[in-house]
Amino acid sequence: MSGIWKPARHKYGVVTSNFVANTINQALQLYIGETVHVLEEYWPDPKTDKVTWLRGCTISNKNKKGIFPCCYIAFKECTVENEGPFETVTPVEDAVITEIIFVLREWNTRWKMLFVERKQLFQTILLVMGELAKYRTQLASSTLTREKALEQKHSAIIMMDWGNSQLGLDLVPRVEYQQADPDQLSVVEMFRIHEQSVHNCQGAWQPN
Predict the structure, then answer these.
(1) Where a domain ends, among 91, 113, 139?
(2) ∠ CA(128), CA(119), CA(171), 5° rounding?
(3) Per the database record, which ranges form the SH3 domain (predicted)?
(4) Domain count, the chain
């Protein structure tokens, strides 16, 4: 490569297509849905801002670094701490994706307690957790159309409301797929939002 490498301007992204690395020296194998920490970007012509290659690692394995095509990555907002050789990146993720991650962690603890007492619900919650994990991966991959992404967010929210109800957890009031801020809404608005959450868990969706 005859161009130059520069510190990355965009530090975090999601892999949008599988990248096979076995034919390229120092390349990093990537799989769709993985997240990457980008360290450097390659400029083939320093006079332009066109970037063709990136150097970095996957978030799941930071010890293995390599290069990969820029076109395989959808960049995401993130915060960077200790910028430099030992920097860390924290994604500023979509609210629904963040909530799915939190819900799966919280459900996992309570779900195990159902095995003895309510085996049927145990199996159902397991299936729903699998669906939510699938939604999270697809939403994070940025490969969905806007309409499909909104559809999946809506489905995920209904599933989370239903599961929270079944597990005795609090329902989460939301506005436009984000948790509602009580300080910004009237009592009537909060009541209507809460009613929608109750509707979600009582009849809007039922597991197959």
Answers:
(1) 91
(2) 45
(3) 8-78
(4) 2
What is the 3 state secondary structure string of 2-53? CCEEEECCCCEEEECCCECCCCCCCECCECCCCEEEEEEEEECCCCCCCCCE
- pLDDT above 90 covers a percentage of the chain that reads 19
Q: Are residues 101 and 196 in the same domain?
A: yes
Tokens of residue 24, six digits: 């390229």
Residues 85 and 110 in one domain: no
127: containing domain: 95-202
Residues 86, 141 within the same domain: no
pLDDT in tens, 70-100: 999 988 888 898 888 788 888 777 778 878 8
Residue 17's pLDDT is what?
Answer: 81
